[in-house]
Every structure is written in structure tokens, then in C-alpha cells.
Input
Amino acid sequence: MAPQHGPRRARIAFSDSAAKQLENITSESELHALDRALVVVSVDPEAGEPIPGDTTGPQLREYADEVERVRLLYWVTALKKIIILGSNAFTAVQSPVSV
Output
């Protein structure tokens, strides 16, 4: 019998702004916390809360983990690819991302 696999994870891409924020993370603990948050949204793209706003574009979502102190802003494409717009992790607090 073939082994059972877990649910397929969504692919994750970073906007230019999020990539710059990622470059500024220097702490191992901050990187680990961000990795855990990315796993959560890759397994369940609906994990974050919808951000109210204009319905003509993609539905922005926010995932926040108060224990790990991480916040992700993202949207999910029609092909279940997650685009990360920005993140805040520990002391790497960034200004809000404009879309």
C-alpha cells in the first residue's frame, strides 16, 4: 500500500516589499517564527482573516500568531499560490504595506 501524504501545500511567493523585509530578519528565532507562520498559510490558505476593502482586486488576508508574534499580509491566487505582501516578526516591525 502506498504511504499517505498530507494535504498539498500552496506555493508561496513574496512581493518586492516582503522580500526586503525578509532580508532584514537577522535573528534565528524571528526566522523560525516566520517559517512556522508560512507553513500555516501554505497548508491552509484560508487561515487568515479577510481584510475588508475593495472587492475589485484580490481578497487581502491577514494571518496573525500572537504567540509567535508574527503577522502576514497576503492574498491567494486562483491557482492557490500565496503572495506575501509583508510581514512583521518580533522587533522587525515594518510600516503597513500599501497595495
Summary: The radius of gyration is 14 Å. The chain has two helices and five strands. Residues 57 and 75 are 10 Å apart (CA to CA).
